[in-house]
Design a protein that fits this description.
The complex is a heterodimer of chains A (about 120) and B (about 110). Chain A is mainly β. Chain A is globular and about 40 Å long. In chain A, a hairpin with a 3-residue loop joins strand 4 and strand 5. Chain A is built from no helices and 11 strands. Chain A is about 0% helix and about 50% strand. By secondary structure, chain B is mainly beta. Chain B is about 0% helix and about 55% strand. Chain B contains no helices and 12 strands. In chain B, strand 5 and strand 6 form a beta hairpin. Chain B starts with a strand and ends with a strand. The chains are: A mainly beta (about 120), B mainly beta (about 110). At the A-B interface, strand 4, strand 5, strand 9 and strand 10 of A face strand 6, strand 10 and strand 11 of B.
């Protein structure tokens, strides 16, 4: 068990809908990362938050947004869903000692999103 | 932009034997970190081993070791005494020392036969 908790484990929804994925980082970790794993794109970095602030952005669509709350949990919001958004969404967290060697990312078990 | 390439989509090994998974990467940076993550059928991404680019010594974690060739930009994973529980997808990942995001390869599916 990595200590990173993601809910829900599975989500089935229809095109055009909006969903929220939730992540609780490991105790003491200040950084949260979101990754998308799909068959055609592989594992891709979406966005990073550090202590409530957005720190880095990757290939995240404008229909997607995220935030990190004062208790450090994070939510990834996906709206106007399309069939191609079906994927496994991972959250990872790290203690974030700069970008040095101790900044190891630990992953949650993922949320599998199916858009029908 | 940095890229990570895993040229072996699938590999297989007999239990108790040794297998090597390949990974190459492309970067113009001199300071970075490399990782191998394992993804079993449970989907959980598990860190197997990591290597700091400034360290010449190859990292080792029990039955897992790496062969890091910085000049060749190669980072292979050797699994010794393979066990059935090693069956999984293995992803090679790169992280620059300047950023925190991980860049993953496409993965290698490892099968372990009894």
């Amino acid at each position: 068990d990595s200590g990173v908790t993601q809910t829900p484990k599975h989500l089935i929804t229809a095109t055009g809908q909006r969903v929220t994925l939730r992540c609780s980082p490991r105790s003491g970790d200040l950084s949260v990362y979101w990754y998308q794993q799909s068959l055609d794109q592989g594992l891709q970095f979406l966005i990073q938050y550090y202590n409530g602030e957005e720190r880095a952005k990757g290939n995240i669509l404008e229909r997607f947004s995220a935030q990190q709350f004062p208790d450090l949990h994070s939510e990834l919001n996906l709206s106007s869903l399309e069939l191609g958004d079906s994927a496994l969404y991972f959250c990872a967290s790290s203690v974030d000692e700069g970008s040095g060697p101790k900044n190891i990312q630990y992953f949650g078990a993922g949320t599998r999103l199916s858009v029908l | 932009a940095q890229t990570v390439t895993q040229s072996q989509p699938e590999m297989s090994v007999q239990e108790a034997e040794t297998v090597t998974l390949s990974c190459t990467y492309d970067t113009s940076e001199s300071d970075y970190y490399l990782f191998w993550y394992k993804q079993p059928p449970s989907r959980q991404m598990i860190l197997v081993i990591r290597q700091e680019a400034y360290k010449q010594q190859n990292a080792t974690e029990n039955r897992f070791s790496v062969n890091f060739q910085k000049a060749a930009k190669s980072f292979s994973l050797k699994i010794s005494d393979s066990q059935l529980g090693d069956a999984a997808m293995y992803f090679c990942a790169y992280r620059s020392a300047r950023t925190d995001k991980l860049i993953f390869g496409t993965g290698t599916r490892l099968q372990v036969f009894p």
